[in-house]
Amino acid sequence: xxxxxxxxxxxxxxxxxxxxxxxxxxxxxxxxxxxxxxxxxxxxxxxxxxxxxxxxxxxxxxxxxxxxxxxxxxxxxxxxxxxxxxxxxxxxxxxxxxxxxxxxxxxxxxxxxxxxxxxxxxxxxxxxxxxxxxxxxxxxxxxxx
Length: 145
Known about the structure:
This protein is of the alpha+beta class. It has helices spanning 2-6, 52-59, 80-84, 139-143, and strands at residues 19-20, 25-26, 30-32, 43-45, 50-51, 123-127, 134-138.
């Protein structure tokens, strides 16, 4: 693991998720810790050294800075606890407090922000179902358009 920590970019998959090839190749830093943390807070990133639960605990009490345009904008500037209440519910399996979840490591969504963009030489194949035409391009070519 030490070599992986010294050069994480070499091992962390590209894109927004902690896997490649439809979850068949998970990030070597990702782990599910079912039973150790509440449901939807049981993802763990060994690169960050934190779980969803840890990240959610750190964000408790932070102000909401953005909501989707279709949502009630009056919540901006409030905390999740102010909006929804804080009933201090305890997970019966892990015994830990259940948070309003904002971290998505449990669902293999990256929190590390490493290799978020696809490399420029990634090939993209597009197929036009009406004409039957197939075209290929690279991410780098699309960036230059």
